Amino acid sequence: MLYWLTGLSDGGDFFNLFRYITFRAGGAFMTALIFGFIFGKPLINVLRRKQGKGQPIRDDGPEGHFSKAGTPTMGGLLIVGALVTSTLVWARWDNPYVWMVLFVTLAYAAIGFADDYAKVSKQNTKGVSGKMRLGLGVIIAVLASIWATMHHPEALQNQLAVPVFKDTLLNLGIFYIPFAIVVIVGSANAVNLTDGLDGLAIMPAMIAASTLGIIAYAVGRVDFTEYLDVHYVPGTGEIFIFTSALFGAGLGFLWYNAPPAAVFMGDTGSLALGGALGAIAVATKHELVLAVVGGLFVVEALSVIIQVLYFKRTGRRVFLMAPIHHHYEKKGWAEPTIVIRFWIISLILAMIGLATLKVR
Fold first, then answer.
1. pLDDT of residue 63
2. Averaged over 48-68, what is the pLDDT?
3. How far apart are CA 351 and CA 132, in angstroms?
4. Per residue in 337-359, pLDDT tens?
5. Are 114 and 284 in contact (CB under 8 A)?
6. Is a pLDDT exceeding 70 seen at residue 257?
7. Is pLDDT of 66 > 70?
8. pLDDT attached to residue 149
9. C-alpha distances in Å from residue 19, one per residue of 27, 86, 212, 246, 321
10. Statement: residue 241 has pLDDT above 90
11. Residue 25 pLDDT > 80
12. How buried is 3 (Cβ within 10 angstroms: 0-12 exposed, 13-18 middle, 19+ buried)?
């Protein structure tokens, strides 16, 4: 919205700053962060009053989790509220990729909110049915994938960019949309599975979003793409404002979610963040890089898949408990140890993913 202040500029004054994505990204970060600090405590108080007993705790979960009984959930409302408000204030409203990512974020947040509400109101860990969540998630991903493809340059439509290999594009044809759907839905659910410990999901999501934001800024500038030998996707640079807002919103939420958490993000936040990461990857044509940058989420999801398939086949378990962060809890690792080590892993993977911009 504030971008339109450039219309008041003569080219050499303060208003001219609003032309620059980097300036507006900084503004988006600060706006989202301040939003979180201002509304965080009041929101937590409202959630605590409305929810009473808070998020229900799994009976078969790690024993340390029973002490968290009564902690309110739906803290993702703070993240999404700060993220969307800040993005609308600082991003250009005529950019289709910004609206696509916002659509996915809000739509998945709505699914997560319905799931959280069902769990809290029934005081049961089973919320909205898995089939319903998956079906709605697929519909959202279909719309977003078509949306992105329609606005991609013709030379990149239905193409899968292969990182590291210079100028390598795989034409998926009619299979690109299904592939993009898997990326968005898979990302949303992977982040959702990771959200099991205080602060575990939010920081890796912030790290992944920041990395993808840098990539979006790079592939949205023709001079950068020529230097880096990567494909040019005009308009995606504006996504950097969204990811900067996400980082600020994440820090604001982490202030209250740091152990011991005063609020959980719930499915409202985890599905929204995961869906946003997948949507950004599709918009920037860096779907495969997302698997590296968000490698922690991939491992968490795979641990569940492996556990379920192996148990159905043999009646035995590979992990003491899935997702894998619970496995380490069962082994006796302290929760802060798991969280911080997983953060470190996320940062390492982000650096590897970022390196793919230059390694050709």
1. 63
2. 71
3. 36
4. 999 999 999 999 999 999 988 88
5. no
6. yes
7. no
8. 95
9. 12, 17, 21, 21, 50
10. yes
11. yes
12. buried
Q: Which residue has the tokens 């929810």?
A: 51
Q: What is the phi/psi pair of residue 159, to 5°?
A: -105, 145
In the structure encoding, which two tokens stand for residue 158, read together? 């239905």
Q: In Å, how far from its chain's centre is CA 335?
A: 22
Q: What is the mean pLDDT of the chain?
A: 92
Burial 221-243 (b: 16+ CB within 10 A, else e): beeebeebebbbbebbbbbbbbb
- pTM above the 0.90 mark? yes
Closest CA to 278 of 136, 181, 170, 171: 181
Does residue 229 have a known ligand-binding role? Answer: no
> C-alpha dihedral over 57, 195, 306, 283, to 10 degrees?
150
Quick one: 110 exposed, middle or buried, by C-beta within 10 A (0-12, 13-18, 19+)?
A: middle
Structure tokens at 238: 């504006």
Q: For residue 124, how many other CB atoms are within 10 A of its CB? A: 10
Q: Where does the pLDDT of residue 12 fall: very low under 50, low under 70, confident under 90, or very high at 90 and above?
A: low
| Residue 16 annotated as part of some ligand binding site | no
Nearest to residue 255, comparing CAs of 106, 56, 32?
32
- pLDDT recorded at residue 13: 65
Domain limits, the chain: 2-9+21-355
**Hey, what are 212's tokens?**
């993808």
Euclidean distance between the first and final Cα of the chain, in Å? 37
